[in-house]
Structures are given as structure tokens and as C-alpha cells.
Amino acid sequence: MQGKGIENAIVSVEGINHDVRTAADGDYWRLLNPGEYSVTVRAQGYSLVRKVCEVGYEMGATQCDFRLARSNLSRIKEIMEKFNKQPINLRRLQQRRPGT
């Protein structure tokens, strides 16, 4: 979402048991015959994205880009580290509340 490629993201094509990983700049390539493919991209700290990519008959590469967003848990951890905070212990918090 910040316009930067994500290194080492995993690109999976449904029905093909051969995942590829993105390069340092987020670029990836996957040889596929013309057709429609359900492609999933996942990376640590990001929400999974799935979409249909269509490979045409034209010469050259077919582009299929993905936009991954930071997962909520990843964003929370990042904010906590930035402000030197500790995780909230929900059990301890619930024990302090009267009537729970």
C-alpha cells in the first residue's frame, strides 16, 4: 500500500503445486499458458490477497499486480514497538473488572 515491493512474498497459483517467491523489489514471474488463473499472494505481516489473473496470447509478459495491506496484528505490534508498550493481558484485565 506504500508503493514498495515486498520481498519474499509467496505467489501461489490454484491447481499448480509450485509456489514462487518475490524478488527484493517485489517482482515475480511465473510461466503459465494462456488462460485464467486464481492467484494468491501472502507475506508475513500482511493480509492475504487473492485475485483472478488472465494470461493472454500476446507476445511478452502479462502483468498481474497485487496490493497487500499490513495485517492488523502486524500494525498493532509495530505501534507497540514504536512506543515501547507491552501487550495487554486480557485475562488480568478481566479479573480486575467487578462482575466478570
UniProtKB/TrEMBL annotation:
UniProtKB keywords: Carboxypeptidase, Hydrolase, Protease
Superkingdom of source: Eukaryota
GO molecular function, one term: carboxypeptidase activity
One Pfam family here: CarboxypepD_reg
CDD domains registered for this protein in UniProt: Peptidase_M14NE-CP-C_like (cd11308)
Family matches, as InterPro entries: CarboxyPept-like_regulatory, Peptidase_M14_domain
Signal peptide feature range: none
Protein name from the UniProt record: Inactive carboxypeptidase-like protein X2
Organism in which the protein naturally occurs: Bagarius yarrelli
Lineage per the UniProt record: Eukaryota, Metazoa, Chordata, Craniata, Vertebrata
